[in-house]
Amino acid sequence: MAVSFDFTMFNLNDPKLSKSADALESALAQLSKNAAPLVTSNVASNVSNNGSGFDEWLANDFQLGVLPGEDIASLTSSPYSALDDSPILGLESFGAAIGPSLFDMNFGFTADLAAPFCQSQPQPTIANQTETPALTTTAVQQAAAALNIPWSQDLELAVLAQARAAALTNALPVNSTSAIIIPKIESVEQTITSVSVASSAASDVNSSSCKKRAFSPEEEQDEVVAKRAKNTDAARRSRLKKLVRLETLETKVGELETTNNRLNMKVAILETEKNGHLVKEAEQSARIAKLEAKLAEAHALLTTYEGGPVSAGEISLGDNCCQLEHLHLTATVSGSSLAGSKGVSNSRAQGTGWSWLECQETDGSSSGNDSDEGSVDHIGGAGIRRDDLSGSQAWTRLAELVRRNQSTLKTLAIVLTSPPPAATPTREFWDAIVNCFPAQSSFSSSARLAGLHILGREIKLEDLMLVWEAAGPYLKTIQLSKFLVEYEPWTHYIGSGELITGMVTNLMMASALRRVELLEIRGMNPETQFAIFIAKTPRLRTLKWTIHRSHAGATLDWGTEIPYHLQPQGRWTELEHIVITSERETKSIPDILLATLLDHTSGGILKTLVLKAVDVKKLTLGSLQHHFEHLQSLDLGQCSAVSGASAQQILSSCPEMEHFSVNTIHAQDILSGSPWICLKLRTLSVFIDFSQSPSRPGPEIMQPELALAQTCSTNVTEVCQDIQHQTVFGQLSKLTCLESLHLGQNRPSPCRSINVKTLHWRLRSGLGLLSTLTELSDIHLLSHHSMNVSRSAVIWMINNFPKLERVQGRLGTRKSDHGILGRLLKEHGIESSPKD
């Protein structure tokens, strides 16, 4: 019997589907081949046994399908190995028996061929035949998994189609007495007919093998229970693994915490040891510093001689008073004689005055060891007293002391305070100083004398120039203070320019001075001092020059060009500090000289400039502009020619300024000027003038403010003053580093101070803007004029200036208010006193 199937519904070109279908087809073909004799011989027996053995074999395959992955991996990977154990087929291998695929053949069944087969004689129905359960998708998937066949939707459709065909075949009546009649076909279709018979037999076997045995509810419930038990066991094992893992991690965390605590303890111990070492090191450093100070003091005692004024006593001096490095001679005599003094001991000549000059050489020797002949351990010996010793003999002995220590002497200070003739050094003494330096023709660095200080009454010009010519190339510091330069009579017939030129031309080498201090020298005019000691010192770093009051009346007018003999030798590339002052304002140092000094100073080097009571005018201020960028301290106090506009320009052009002092700046200059950029300013001393004069008209008010003032019937002058005060306070509020504010130090003269108007120190005028000045500690207000300091302003200062220590000047609007407000400041630890 042959059944015609329409296989066009399946995709026969899919290789995966073809391979899977081939496997199922091979199994069905072998089943049909082995089942054919059974059908012809005994159909009833075949029907009664149909499906029983195959169901058992399929159940075994299902059990193999649910084995774990390890058990499945142990089985053969061949897609046909699962069929080897089939109880019905009984075959060892299907590999050699697999024929051509049913899906690759064109069956060619027609209705004429199928009709005789289907219209065979009716067969009696078997009473005990059981209905085969329908093949489901789940059963097919399990069978494919058991056979290791890759699953797909197309394969599922093909298997279900074959199952339906097998079910249809089983539904037809079977004649138990007659054999299966296979119609005879043409020779051209013999191959197709044999394949059809094999396909029909395979369909019968397939329908029997695909029948699924129905499970009872108890078996299904047992299967569900088994699955639940399996899942529960798997979950329990998973939780157990997690607990074991958690315990392992907790153990590791505990070990790490123990290690961390141990390391922290070790770090704490090391920190303690470190602090102990630091404390010990600090103690040792302090002890070293103390020992170094003692050593320096002992060295100074060994190498310093300081003479002092005495009245009488024994005179003594040993031969070993040598290797001195610092020699300070102070001479005070009475009349024309020198007084004696006590001896020198303990490695230092103390309070001897000129007494050692009167001693004569004796047989007395040092009490120290013989091996220390070059050191000053003790100076002793018998001496005699000579009240009639002349000044020339004293200077002769002093010259001997200088010659004895000229190889080790570093600084020499000569203080001449006695009246002439005793205080006038002799030529022999100056020659001894000159011999401390090599000759200029053979310049050598062997000279050790680097500092010379001469303070006295008189000194001859010839002697001064002799020392200067010899010491100029070697000295690093020179200080000439408060003495009178005596000129020879013949010099009065020579002009100052010719005299200066002659003295300067004798200097063969440039001076090596780094610091020059010319303090109140009389007898030598400022231009000569500048030409000799300043213009020829290109390595100068610090210049301190104080003009004596005897030169205050001198007036020099050189125009716009400095004389040739005053021209600097070169540029001052290291000049950092310039201090030029006078007791009262003088024109002895003209504006062109100061401008030349600033022009020949390299830009970016000058840090400090003090020009006090000197003639500072347009040329000097123009030359000063080249140093605005790096200038740190500027004092133009008592320079009346400096205008408020110049002061405003300085405040708005010097970003590095820390100290600034100037006479006066007008409020209008601040109002119309640029913002202040000197934000590093720590000290400001200036009088802020709010008065109006013909040369200083009142500020112009902007139109809206003027209209507002007229509408409110307010005085226009008061509106102007309020604007000025707020502008001034606003500029001051930018100086956040300000520590000292002097508003009355450089006040105008008393004759003008009656009508002067200054800053109103009150909250209504804008005092509250100064809350940014948290570093302010010293405030100087006007003492001769009220600045309208009210009680509320004083309380505000106490609360907003945490570092305030001193307030000087007049407080309040009445004299009685000053005492009350002063006591209020004192209660908060702030000093208060009227400013004189």
Number of strands: 19
Q: What is the overall shape?
A: elongated
* Unreliable segments of 5+ consecutive residues: 1-10, 38-52, 66-131, 174-199, 308-318, 332-389, 694-714
Give Rg in angstroms.
Answer: 62 Å
Mean pLDDT: 70
Estimated helix fraction: 25-40%
Overall structural domain count:
4
Count of runs of 4 or more consecutive helical residues: 23
User: Which class of secondary structure composition applies to the elements?
Assistant: alpha/beta
What is the distance, rounded to the nearest whole angstrom, between the alpha carbons of the first and last residues?
144 Å
User: What amount of the residues lies in strands?
Assistant: 5-15%
Largest sheet: 17 strands, parallel
Give a verbal description of the structure.
With 836 residues, this protein is an alpha/beta fold. The chain has four domains: 7-214, no CATH class; 227-302; 307-360 and 375-458, no CATH class; 643-836, Leucine-rich repeat, LRR (right-handed beta-alpha superhelix), CATH 3.80.10. The protein contains 23 helices and 19 strands. The chain has a 17-stranded parallel beta sheet. The chain has a two-stranded parallel sheet with strand order 6-8. Helix 11 links the parallel strand 4 (411-416) and strand 5. Helix 1 (15-41) crosses helix 8 (190-209) and helix 15 (591-599) runs parallel beside helix 16. The model is unreliable at 1-10, 38-52, 66-131, 174-199, 308-318, 332-389 and 694-714 (pLDDT under 50).
